[in-house]
Amino acid sequence: MQIELMTKSLIKTLLGISDTSYDTNIDLQLPIVSMDVRKYLNQNYQKYRTATYSIGENTAVIGGKMLDIGTVLQGTGIPDDTYITSYDYDEDEYTVNNTFTASDDDRVFPTISINQWNAIARMVMYKVSKMTVTSATEKDLVSKAIDSLSWTFADGEINKKYGYPQKLLDELGARFARVG
């Protein structure tokens, strides 16, 4: 299992960023945002499921209750940004968007859903935009632009507890409620 919930290349693809000028800052902020997402959603994604999959295949048998289509998987031999694309009830197996690169582990770690990728990508870039020298002096920043990306947030729209625009946090979906 890895700390990052998605890759830098996926973030750049989703946001239409083609140059490398922000790569270092994305690399710095991605693990921080990934941990913030875990904290906000109250989900550490450390629970694994037993699984059987083979090198060069894109199907797996995964134990436990049924996983949602679009669930991102992590684990040994599972390429980054791999997610479930379908489930075959007859064969009791999942199909994923990538082929497995190893089969020496018998577990997978279900993490976020692909419908959270856009929000997480924008959260990373929000943090990147706060790293610039000029942003340190702009306390009431209401507008920011990076390349072709631009956004506007009033100071009151920033969640004070988590430090992100509430709109982005809302896009992550419902938080996991722990009982007992």
Structural descriptors:
4 helices, globular, 180 residues, 6-stranded antiparallel barrel, 2 domains
Mean pLDDT: 88
Question: How many domains make up the coordinates?
Answer: 2
Q: N-to-C SSE series?
A: HHEEEEEEHEEH
Biggest sheet: strand arrangement: 1-2-5-4-3-6
Point out poorly predicted stretches. none
Termini, distance in Å? 26 Å
The count of strands amounts to: 8
Q: What is the makeup of the main sheet?
A: 6 strands, antiparallel, barrel
Separate helix tally: 4
Strand content: 15-25%
Overall geometry comes to globular
The structural class is alpha+beta
Overall radius of gyration = 18 Å
Residues in helices, as a percent range: 25-40%
Tell me what the structure shows.
- This protein is α+β, with helices and mostly antiparallel strands and 180 residues long.
- The chain folds into 2 domains: 93 residues, no CATH class; 65 residues.
- It has 4 helices and 8 strands; from the N terminus they run ααββββββαββα.
- A 6-stranded antiparallel beta barrel has the order 1-2-5-4-3-6. Strands 7-8 form a two-stranded antiparallel sheet.
- A hairpin with a 2-residue loop joins β7 and β8.
- α1 crosses α3 and α2 crosses α3.
- The protein starts with 7 loop residues before the first helix and ends in a 9-residue tail after the last helix.
- The model has no long low-confidence stretch (mean pLDDT 88).
